[in-house]
Specification:
- By secondary structure, the protein is an alpha/beta fold.
- Helices cover 34% and strands 27% of the residues.
- The protein has 11 helices and 16 strands.
- The strands form 4 sheets. The chain has an 8-stranded mixed beta sheet. A 4-stranded antiparallel beta sheet has the order 10-12-8-13.
- β1 and β2 form a beta hairpin.
- The longest helix has 21 residues.
- The protein starts with 10 loop residues before the first helix and ends with a helix.
Length: 390
């Protein structure tokens, strides 16, 4: 379908309103599952636009826009939570909630979906089918908000055939769009290892069990899981970012705690690797006379972009944007609870360039999305929605 977005909206007419929405959301961030005021703001906006709210799950809000004629059902999702990070005070606007900021661009995601909701609702007589609007809480914190939304049965009730989402990308310029078909983002599990021994004097290690040395050997030994057990065609990462003990320079501690993350893109290997982590950790500890407890907290599954839809969406975007602005992405070992949706139905996760001269990486105090990118993201998703529903 040949979509001309100017037939549906003029971005200049809504730019000021979108900037106001973004500024409000940016300055009032709330952490995962406690997005109370954010949720109220979203519900107020949807009611003002006469968009029906069909479900609230905790602080998550789900709306619906019914087209003029029957057709397929698709969904769009925006995450609404912020991170426990103190924002760079030089930012304008800047967070008013001390120690909390939208360091992952969820303020941009919400503004984007609210703008799209407004446009689609004003043009619903031209729509065939319906669109589910998912404003989801808790993306940043396990177990994630996606699981609770899926558990309501909404995907089956409305027979949602495809779901899409955008995400800010500070490594892409404003006007650029990143997309990848197939496997895209990794699963992510949290690893907690507790090494225990009697403790003792550092000058007499022969009279005790060296828990620090044992923990060190466990960290080194576990690195062989990927290099010696993982098939080379499977992306896989095992990293330990924290080792903590209660010892000092002359004290061998009774406990050493190790924390890390395991990420991959194959469920069979994921389960095998978690078994190996437990076996190798406990085996190395036992060989040193220590004991070891391993706890693995299961995180999000891997995210797969539906080839059926994503390939055609990429072609569609190339038709409506300059071809050099549509970037082919590689595999990422970061995680995203949108992956639960991709396990449930066809899905596409898209990156929108928001590069700002003074901005740093996602999840840092200096991240700031360039809101000029809203024009690109809204246009892209309006085109996608109208094409998928015709």
């Amino acid at each position: 379908m040949d979509i001309k977005t100017e037939d549906y909206y003029n971005y200049k007419d809504i730019k000021g309103e979108l900037e106001g929405i973004f500024n409000h959301l940016h300055t009032n961030p709330e952490i995962s599952f406690k997005e109370y005021e954010t949720s109220k703001y979203i519900k107020s906006f949807l009611k003002k636009e006469s968009i029906e709210i069909i479900e609230t799950i905790g602080t998550s809000v789900i709306g619906i826009i019914e087209g003029n004629t029957k057709g397929k059902t698709i969904a769009l999702r925006a995450d609404i939570d912020a991170l426990p990070i103190c924002e760079n005070p030089n930012h304008s606007p800047c967070s008013r909630n001390k120690g909390v900021m939208h360091a992952c661009g969820h303020d941009f995601h919400m503004t984007n979906l609210l703008g799209i909701a407004k446009i689609l609702n004003k043009n619903k007589e031209k729509l065939k089918g319906r669109i589910i609007l998912i404003f989801q809480s808790g993306e940043e914190t396990l177990p994630g908000g996606a699981k609770s939304i899926i558990s309501t049965g909404i995907f089956d009730k409305y027979n949602i055939e495809w779901i899409g989402a955008i995400h800010c990308e500070p490594n892409l310029e404003v006007g650029e769009i990143g997309i990848k078909s197939g496997m895209y983002m990794a699963s992510g599990d949290e690893i907690y290892i507790d090494v225990e021994g009697p403790g003792g004097h550092a000058a007499m290690p022969h009279k005790t069990i060296d828990t620090v040395l044992t923990a060190s050997e466990i960290v080194v030994g576990l690195q062989q899981i990927n290099s010696r057990f993982c098939p080379p065609e499977i992306p896989s990462v095992l990293t330990f970012g924290k080792i903590e003990s209660g010892g000092q320079m002359n004290i061998i501690p009774e406990h050493v705690k190790i924390e890390g993350t395991f990420r991959t893109m194959n469920e069979e290997w994921r389960e095998k690797a978690k078994t190996l982590i437990k076996q190798i950790s406990c085996g190395l500890a036992e060989s040193k006379g220590a004991t070891c407890k391993v706890k693995i907290v299961e995180g999000y599954p891997f995210l797969i972009n539906s080839e059926r839809y994503t390939d055609s969406i990429k072609k569609l975007l190339i038709e409506h944007f300059d071809v050099e602005n549509i970037k082919s992405l590689g595999i990422r070992m970061t995680t995203e609870d949108f992956s639960y949706y991709s396990q449930k139905t066809d899905a596409t996760f898209i990156r929108i360039g928001v590069k700002e001269d003074s901005s740093k990486a996602l999840h840092t105090s200096s991240f700031k999305a360039n809101i000029d990118a809203l024009e690109t993201s809204i246009k892209a998703l309006i085109i996608i929605c109208f094409n998928l529903l015709h």
